[in-house]
Amino acid sequence: MDPTRDRLLAERARTVRRLAELTGDFREIVDASRDTNADDEHDPEGATIAFERSHVATLVAQARTQIEELDAALSRVDAGTYGVCERCGRPIDPARLEVRPTARTCVAC
Fold it and tell me: Are 11 and 67 in contact (CB under 8 A)?
């Protein structure tokens, strides 16, 4: 077993679960606003609904991006280039990879 691969796969699974939750939340917000006469512009609650919808949509986009980054990191593991800076070719500090396992560059780059 490769601990790096396992860690990335575990993080990917957590992110996929989070994305599913957020997608459900987004759907609930849209459905709830559809069932009311509220329009975001004239209803006092409209701004709140619009903010919630926008906030959850942003979190969904971030989760999708994170999954893409994790998939790219897994590809680098498979290619044997994980932990190597894509700019300078030097090793990425393990502490950086611990904090940001999808890092593509070293701190200097």
Answer: no
Mean pLDDT of 51-77: 94
pLDDT of residue 28: 80
Q: What are residue 99's phi and psi, to 5 degrees?
A: -80, -40
Q: Please state the domain count of the chain.
A: 1
For residue 90, being part of any structural domain is answered with no
87 within some domain = no
Contact 106, 93 (CB under 8 A): yes
**Cβ 7 vs Cβ 83: under 8 Å:** no
Euclidean distance between CA atoms 100 and 85, whole angstroms: 13
Residue 16's pLDDT band (boundaries 50, 70, 90)?
Answer: very high
